[in-house]
């Protein structure tokens, strides 16, 4: 295994600064770019709050500069969150507390409480702290480290899409997850869990098999790996894996059946025990039909399925990282243990997991050193979809609003039908077949109202029992 300095592939020139800072023995998570939102999910009229590396930030559209801006989410006056304010008619971010206003570069433009000839707003102390931003491949990125370094550190984008931009169909989703960015990256690097964890969603138990993985190159900037046989016992072809430190990984394979497919995951660290997943699935299909079907599928409908897949392992990963924390920092030991001591990894299937954990250890790459995880959350909170996804997703919250409107309409039609129909039949206004047909209208609208209610629930909460734990059909037949 040779040393490698993996640079994120970008459309720009090669940067003189690598992510993670200058210390060769430490990866500084602040000195890197992170995606914080899909552009299509942001509302130009409303500031959006987010947390990046325990730092509250506000995302807002600057109509004067025609750009998305990111500030620390606190007014320099009395530290009120700017995300609770508004973008005023002048196109400036306005604090909700006392009306101080800020331009796109963070400069304070107005303090309503000062005299007309006052100049307190010109002080550096009156400025909001602006954070560098960049837009690539439909994502808004932020740089939480030293602002002067941001232009010299490349934004981690999907290299194959930048190198060959034509012909791709890309599905996108995101979700705030109740576990660490490290836990997420470890999970998605591990292809061996898919047949069991995701049985009956995107995997099948019968596809589990010995896996011979190879780490080709590794270093502070990440690693590259190769799985010669590939998924489904070699039926799909060789799979290549790339981890670009600190928060991007992708699997890449080309098969005769489906063409080229990628699984791309960004793990944006929010706080200890919480991260935002950005998952992207680029396809170059060998036929036009799959691309056509994807193009006709509403984004919100795809997100319902994506959320179900994430919930396959959401509960046990939330619990597992707390067990792992105790195993790595046991009270009965004078020193901490490393990952290979805490876990038993006898097969090649764990090669990428071990490579990732070695990267964390070798470069002191814990994004929240010294922080402890909080108490485990109840299952209902872990399966929440509304607060972790729906309210932040433009397509899902719009679909939910329309669905609720339709259900209210159906309820009204059903109520009117039940009220009017008996009277119409009793007075002879309608008789015979017409009465029979019209009598089904209230029943039909009530059934539609109930069915749409089940769909509506899927925007709020995940299923309690994952498909892998449901009784098998053969077992049911024997019973």
Question: In words, what does this structure look like?
Answer:
α9 (394-426) runs antiparallel to α10 (432-457). It contains eleven helices and 19 strands. The model is unreliable at 1-14 (pLDDT under 50). By secondary structure, it is an alpha+beta fold. Helix content is 30%, strand content 22%. The radius of gyration is 26 Å and the shape is globular. The chain has an eight-stranded mixed β-sheet, covered by helices on one side.
Write the layout of secondary structure elements.
Elements (H helix, E strand, L loop, with lengths): L1 E2 L30 E5 L9 E5 L2 E8 L4 E6 L13 E2 L5 E2 L6 E2 L5 E3 L19 E2 L1 E4 L2 E4 L16 H5 L5 E9 L3 H9 L4 H4 L16 E6 L2 E6 L11 E6 L3 E8 L3 E13 L2 E12 L2 H9 L2 H30 L10 H4 L8 H12 L16 H4 L11 H33 L5 H26 L15 H6 L1
Parallel strand pairs: 1-14
Antiparallel strand pairs: 2-12, 3-4, 4-5, 5-10, 6-7, 7-8, 8-9, 11-12, 13-19, 14-15, 15-16, 16-17, 17-18, 18-19
Helix pairs in contact: 2-7, 9-10
Strand order of the largest sheet: 1-14-15-16-17-18-19-13
Largest sheet: 8 strands, mixed
How much strand content do the residues show?
15-25%
Succession of helices and strands: EEEEEEEEEEEEHEHHEEEEEEHHHHHHHH
Output the number of helix runs: 11
End-to-end gap: 53 Å
Shape: globular
Evaluate the radius of gyration. 26 Å
Overall average residue pLDDT = 90
Percent helix range: 25-40%
Q: Give the low-confidence spans.
A: 1-14
Count all strands and give the number. Answer: 19
What kind of assembly state do the chains in view correspond to? single chain
